[in-house]
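Before a colleague's protein record goes any further, I have to sign it off. What it holds is a sequence and that sequence's fold in token form. Would you go through it and say whether the fold makes sense for this chain? The record follows directly below this note.
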Amino acid sequence: ERFPKMKLPDALKSQQERIVQAVADEAEGRGPLEELLRHPGVVAVYAVSPADVFAATPPSELIDPAPSVSGVPTPEGYQRTRVRFRDVEHMRRTASRLLAPLAQDLTPATPAVEGTLPDGWAVGAQIMEGGGAAILMQRSQ
């Protein structure tokens, strides 16, 4: 409904709803995190690498029961999720879009930024050693 003229090849029609939602999530700025943030039971999201995205009280369909392949331990109170970023650059672009309402961006001059978004989510992002990014979001009480 957000892209009424968008037509997908027959091979992708079964995935159309998921694809359209992913495009909308990217366009609206929260990328793959939106899948977690739209669930009212999720109270916090913590992304430390493209394949290591954790959430406090995620819906069961988004929990990843597989052990970490990167060796990142699951933080206490969180569960590993199936949510993934394509790569480190995708994470950094998502962090930049998340921070846009705060009129701030992650740069070498400001490697850590935090604030509260207009919708009430508290967000913190940091450039990590090696150029990656970490993102922490918490639902306001």
The chain is about 20% helix and 20% strand. The mean pLDDT is 85. The first strand starts at residue 44 and ends at 49.
